[in-house]
User: What shape does this take?
Amino acid sequence: MPEELVRQERRTIEGTDGTAPILTLNRNEAIMPDAPKADRPKVVAGLEINKVADGYIVYQPSRDRVHYLNHTATIVLELCDGKNSAAEIAGLLRSAYGMAEAPDAEVSACLEQLAGEGLVS
Assistant: This one.
């Protein structure tokens, strides 16, 4: 069995106006080096992502398509770094916003839509 590693991460997601963070995540997690990454969404390469007042505008050159993401979809997209599963993204949002329960269904629906549009894989 591979030796377990620990990753410490602090990540701040800034507001679209650039004045204040909207979300700061602190995380210590156990990492198994051989763990599968298939269920960990990641933003696809080649997107042009621009911050706007109410989220992101994402240009997808491969499809010559523009996508408008609201604040929630913006945060979910930011957390699609290939390290977080859908359940972990929901858990991070629950912690960051002090929610009673993780928004699992909402995060899954958002990820499904992002994947369907070809923004995450």
